[in-house]
Structures are given as C-alpha cells and as structure tokens.
Structure to design on (255 residues):
C-alpha cells in the first residue's frame, strides 16, 4: 500500500511539474532589444554591459540570454535577448533597474563624454509551443542567424503549423540548430503576423550549404506545397523573410 501511494505521489508530482513548466513557458516574456551606438562608442557600450549591466540585470530579476553584433556591423548595433517571468515582472524589473543608484552612477560615468546609445528598438515576445528550451552555454564558435518572417494576412497559424510539423525537423536534418522561436505579444509591432527565430550554424558558409540542401529536399518541397495549397497561397508576404547573421559577444551567455 505504501509503495502504491508513493508511486501515486510521484506521478502526481511529475504531472504538476509538467503543468508548472508549461505555465512558466506560457507566461515568460522575452525582449529583443537593439541598441545603436554613436561612431567610435560601440566598444564603450560593450564595456558597460560586460562590467556592469548584465550584473545589474540579474540583480533585478532580468535573465540574460544572448548578446550579439551583426557580422557586417555598419550601424554599430548591439542586439540582445533577455527574459522575464511575466509581463508584470518585466515592468517591475525595468522600473527598479532604472531607479537603482548603482545604475545611475554607472550611466553617468560611462556617458561623461556623451551618450553610448543613439536609438533603441525593442519588441516583447512570447515563445511558440514548439520552441526548444534555451540553454545558455559555450559549445564553441558559432554563427547565429536571426530570421524574421512576416506572414500573409490571416496565415500566421498556417506558418507556425508548418514550422511545428516540418521545418524544425528539416533544419536539424540539414545541420542547423534551432535555438528559439518567438512571436510578438499583443500590442507589440508585428503581433498576429510575425515569427522571429534564431538558428545557429558552424559558420556562415555552412549556413548557406545547409539552406541550399534544405530548399532542394523533396520533403521540404512537398511540405511547402501542401501548406500553401491548404492556405490558398504563400504563407509569407512578398519580401517577408529577413535574415541577419550575428556573432556572440565575449560576455554573451549564449555562444
């Protein structure tokens, strides 16, 4: 009887853990932020993040996921991804971070010769149900690719279904690593018609080779045709697929 009760208890515990994990994933808010630094100031911006900002983010409940710069960084950009347990937690964390005397001191010192950021772009996102769990780590030098798809009107769910049922597996088949798949939350630019995701490749050349093989794969050709026949047309708008190759900074948790 005791063994049966113990087994039941374990089963219930595992079930509740599964529900908790699903609820946690459901409520997590991701934020993709892009900072533009003035000419000659990007290294100073990196130093502030490396030496101060990441620690202060953690202090205020902000999870650092990844920090990157474009391979061809003509605009002096820093791109990073962070997360929060919920939308409410995000508001609280940013408020407390902005009011932190330590942050105010760091900001004043690092901007003694002028601002380190001229423009900030930000979008809040949620995980898709098929997105892998993000596991920060340093498996070696990799090329990252940030891809943004704008779905045709009313076809975002069709696009997500194709990724869920076919695309992720085919990416893996052809040597690409699926990192994260996100959509903008309600009220954000792109909500209802945008998919943002990130892949990792061994190199930019490897990425090209992988995509060439992927596009020629009969399984992909069939999945693409079937999904478009079902939806009554292309799942993305014209020029609706954007790609940017990134490299991780030395202080990025995800490398």
């Amino acid at each position: 009887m005791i063994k049966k009760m113990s087994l039941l208890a374990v089963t219930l515990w595992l079930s509740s853990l599964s529900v908790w994990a699903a609820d946690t994933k459901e409520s997590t808010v991701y934020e993709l932020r892009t900072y533009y630094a003035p000419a000659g100031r990007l290294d100073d911006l990196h130093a502030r993040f490396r030496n101060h900002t990441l620690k202060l983010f953690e202090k205020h409940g902000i999870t650092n996921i990844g920090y990157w710069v474009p391979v061809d960084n003509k605009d002096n950009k820093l791109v990073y991804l962070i997360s929060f347990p919920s939308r409410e937690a995000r508001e609280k964390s940013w408020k407390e971070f902005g009011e932190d005397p330590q942050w105010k001191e760091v900001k004043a010192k690092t901007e003694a010769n002028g601002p380190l950021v001229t423009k900030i772009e930000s979008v809040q996102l949620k995980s898709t149900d098929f997105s892998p769990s993000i596991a920060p780590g340093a498996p070696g030098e990799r090329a990252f690719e940030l891809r943004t798809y704008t779905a045709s009107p009313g076809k975002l769910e069709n696009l997500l279904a194709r990724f869920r049922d076919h695309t992720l597996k085919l990416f893996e088949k052809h040597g690409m690593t699926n990192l994260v798949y996100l959509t903008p939350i309600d009220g954000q630019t792109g909500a209802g018609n945008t998919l943002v995701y990130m892949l990792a490749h061994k190199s930019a050349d490897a990425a090209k080779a992988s995509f060439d093989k992927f596009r020629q794969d009969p399984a992909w050709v069939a999945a693409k045709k079937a999904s478009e026949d079902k939806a009554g047309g292309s799942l993305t708008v014209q020029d609706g697929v954007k790609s940017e190759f990134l490299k991780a900074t030395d202080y990025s948790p995800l490398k």
